[in-house]
Every structure is written in structure tokens, then in C-alpha cells.
Design brief:
Layout (H helix, E strand, L loop, with lengths): L7 H16 L2 H9 L1 H6 L2 H13 L8 H4 L2
Length: about 70
Amino acid sequence: GLPPPAGFGQVGLLRRECLELRRMPESDRRARLASDEFRGRFSAPEQQLLGDLARLLPLPRPPAPEAASK
């Protein structure tokens, strides 16, 4: 088969990180975006993209157990 396109591994990494960021509460997301690990792993444009996507497209949070039973 053909090798994956150049940068394919990074695309998968970006996708996984975006999903994780979208699942986080806002305070955790801000801390992650400011972390040395995050800044070392992604370029400045990637950091901006991930932050924007996570802020604009958060995943819905499941209702709290007590709210779901009412």
C-alpha cells in the first residue's frame, strides 16, 4: 500500500488532542493549553487551532446523576 501522506501522524495527534480538550471543563482546558508539554508538542498555529476548536465546539457534558433521575 501507499505510505500515509506526510504529516499524517501529526493529524492524528491533533485530532486526539482536540477531542480531549473538547471534553475538559474550561478551567482544565486553559491549564492544558498553557502547559509546557502542550506548547512543546504543537506549533503556534496548531496551538491556536486547537484552542479555538475546543472553545467553539465543546462536547456536551452528561447531566449530573441527580439531574438525570428527576
